[in-house]
Amino acid sequence: MRLHGQDVSAATLARKAGDLGAAGGVRSVVLADGAERGLRVLEFRTGSGLGFDVLVDRAMDIGPADYRGASFGWRSATGLRHPGLHENADEDGLGWLRSFSGLLVTGGLDHAFGAEELDASHFRYSRRATTKNGLHGRIANTPARLIGYGEDRVGDEVVLWAEGEVRQAAVFGEHLRLRRRIEADLGGTEIRLTDTVTNAGFDPTPHMYLYHINVGWPFLDEGARFEAPVVRTLWQSDSVAEQGFSHLVLPGPQPGFVEQVYEHELRPDADGRVKARLANDRLGVFFEVEYDSGEFPVFLQWMHLREGAYTIGLEPSTNHVGGARAAREDGTLTWLGPGESRGYHTTLRVGALAQPSA
Predict the structure, then answer these.
(1) What is the DSSP string of 271-325?
(2) Domains in the chain, number
């Protein structure tokens, strides 16, 4: 482990400090004020300058995150709102936007993208012919059952971890379960996500999945660069042509900015992995997402550069931006059979930009 400029083994660390907390670790807290009151949080600190909060009661998503004193997990005006305040059908399905904040907000498990009312005849219940789905589905506002968390010694290293299960279920409806494990190495600068979504019910059930990964100030700032192996841009919102802001070199906060959205085709490496990043030359840092292109065949870039809500989203997705109805019509929607699972293996990484050679 690299800690404070030294290579330190787990045994050496034990000699130097009677409590691992001197170097880093995972701490369980409960937030106690305002709209976040009662929210269970696991605070990860790796000792390398990377810190992040896992929101147990919000699907084990990741809220605030920082690196060497600089925040990169987006903090919106909603704050970390307790899921008990959420109403899925509120505001014609847009109530999700009243709790939209943090580095990682998960979309799914059966629906992602815009609010839609869709056929539910596959559940064979006459009183529920359709299902109303809010923006990006229900999972992000569902508490997890915490399976465990802690620090494991693996050889000369220490792995910080947390694991939980989130259940999305209804009588005469879906029964989907998300098993999420989050790991980070003591002395490391990456967050590893391992997600498994299982149809625990007995009816074929739609499955859509999206990571809304949101980077905020100061990692995002005027002059920050979006970098990815873009083969071509498959789609972009009308606001791109109307506003004309670059999606490669980003401006500072803009008054009245209308969100710009792109769907890019990205080129995977020989192992099928894809990397996309935001680089900030002024701070000399980057944030990067790495994912499996077979698990997430779609990548979206979301730009919301409005004053007071300044962020960029890097979004691996199972489906195209057209949403659930379009996926049903063109045959790209995933249907999980009884007992069937899908796995997702993703890494979020921060670090210092390489210095140009003299």
Answers:
(1) TSEEEEEEEETTTTEEEEEEEETTT--EEEEEEE-BTTS-EEEEEEESS-TT-HH
(2) 1
